[in-house]
Amino acid sequence: MATIRVDRWPITVQLHPAEYLPGWLMRVGCRYQLTPIQILRELRVPRSPTGYHLVLEHLSLHARWIAAHLGVPAGDLRAALWGRPIDAAAARYLVHHRHIRPDRGGSRFCARCLAEPDPWWHAGWANPLLPLCVRHQVYLQSTCEGCGQVPWTGTAWMSALAPPWQCPQRHAREPQRPGRVRPFCRYDLRDAAVLAAPAKLCHAQQNLIEFAALADLQPSRQLRYGTTDMPITEVLDELCRRFVDTIGSPVRGPGDRPGQSEQGDPPARQNWHATRWPFQAGSQPASL
Ligand SMILES: [Zn+2]
Ligand SMILES: [Zn+2]
């Protein structure tokens, strides 16, 4: 009888559309009682990744191999690695208009989403332009109240085994005890205080995400702005700028500000204008 070599792992942990990849890796880990670094080793993905970018690089280089073993469609994994149009829009806006190199490490979170049954980390929470959970109409939290860090920053989470609602960080290094192995934080992120966000800001964020998707589908489209035609990507940059100005806090990567709370941010201004499209109604895309 011929021997059939079965490489696929027995349990498939579904990768949700727009799921944050470190969070998915951790969910896989929780099913197998393996840390993310142990999963990569089991999959014989070479070298220990030492940072978020390297984790992505490793997943990217071995996407087909990893997808085949973990039982998820390779296309889904590639789509998650590629990101959504709003992620590309945020990166372009930050680099070209704010001269900030976006750091993809670290993610904000919605305590309400994490308190739902079978929670998972949303990739949008890591987008520095999107500070809200539109489903719950609340501001996302940047830092864990247990350790003061932004979840998923650094590399400690690679050796953690934490359910989605638990902070995957290690406690910060103590200067007086530099050699000591730092314990994991394990703070329950569902306990974080949440701050309600105005409905119109939530709509504006949703509009921005949808407009980025449209610009991605029709990148050569021109939209009428006053008396001139503007490329849709320039309109998108302008909408990003207006959204950031309206939110009223300086743009930063979720991981740029460890140790501080999002609650210290000034409240969003009420005069939100970006939902009024800066081009004439006649040229407005029908799908909007
Ligand atoms: Zn939420
Ligand atoms: Zn923590």
The proportion of strand residues reads under 5%
Shape: globular
The strand order across the widest sheet is 1-2
Weakly predicted, low-confidence segments: 253-288
Residues in helix, %? 25-40%
Hetero groups = zinc ion
Would you count the extended β strands for me?
4
Beginning-to-end CA distance, first to last residue = 60 Å
Mean pLDDT: 82
Count of separate DSSP helical elements: 9
Cα gyration radius (Å): 21 Å
Organism: Antrihabitans spumae
InterPro entries: TniQ
Region (Disordered): 247-288
Domain TniQ: 10-140
List its traits.
binds zinc ion; globular; single chain; 9 helices; two-stranded antiparallel ribbon; mainly alpha; 288 residues
Structural commentary:
With 288 residues, the protein is mainly α. It has a domain at 84-171 and 182-277. It is globular and about 65 Å long. The chain has nine helices and four strands. The protein has a two-stranded antiparallel sheet with strand order 1-2. A two-stranded antiparallel sheet has the order 3-4. The protein binds zinc ion (2 copies). One zinc ion binds at residues 110, 112-113, 133, 135-136. This is TniQ family protein. Residues 10-140 form the TniQ domain. Residues 247-288 are annotated as: Disordered.
Task: Give the topology.
Layout (H helix, E strand, L loop, with lengths): L20 H12 L3 H7 L9 H10 L1 H8 L3 H9 L2 H13 L13 H4 L17 E2 L4 E2 L59 H19 L4 E4 L2 E4 H16 L41
Antiparallel strand pairs: 1-2, 3-4
The structure holds zinc ion (ZN) (2 copies).
The site of one zinc ion has 6 residues, from helix 7.
